[in-house]
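Known limitations

Structure tokens in this collection are predictions and should be treated as such. Users comparing against experimental data should check residue numbering before alignment. To illustrate the layout, the record for Ribosomal RNA large subunit methyltransferase H is reproduced below. The input appears on top and the generated tokens appear beneath it.
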Amino acid sequence: MQITIITVGKLKEKYLQMGIDEYAKRLSSYAKLQIIELPDEKAPENLSEAGEIQVKDKEGLRILSNIKPDSYCIALAIEGKQQSSEQLAESMDKLATYGKSHITFVIGGSLGLSQEVLKRADEKLSFSKMTFPHQLMRLILLEQVYRAFRIIKGEPYHK
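Generated tokens:
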């Protein structure tokens, strides 16, 4: 299986990068992993709603240009469907069974995802109603994808 993670914004925190590297290494025995880091748009704190849309649209164009047409796209969005780890594993297993061997997860920038990216997504996934920094979501997502593969393979993993 091919897993691609498209993410907006540069990762600066060394402790997050160490965790991401660890889960990327663990995942390598289950899937081919690609992380595509796209630049974020500069957005001042007091941005108007129209300005926010403009920023998300510019980031969205970069995201869309990196999603392969045959890839099953899962956008991380606060309004998406929440799943347990077991449900995510079951979903990923079903996708592989039905020939969707390339899954692309999309993590937006600090303002979220554009409407065009959300329209392109085959599925919207929410990890919580809480807001997390998009850099931290990379690590959380990788851990959950790794956990999903362990569940699919029937291998033990702490709860």
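For this record: The chain has a mean pLDDT of 94. Helices lie at 14-27, 49-64, 85-97, 115-120, 134-152. Please report discrepancies through the issue tracker.
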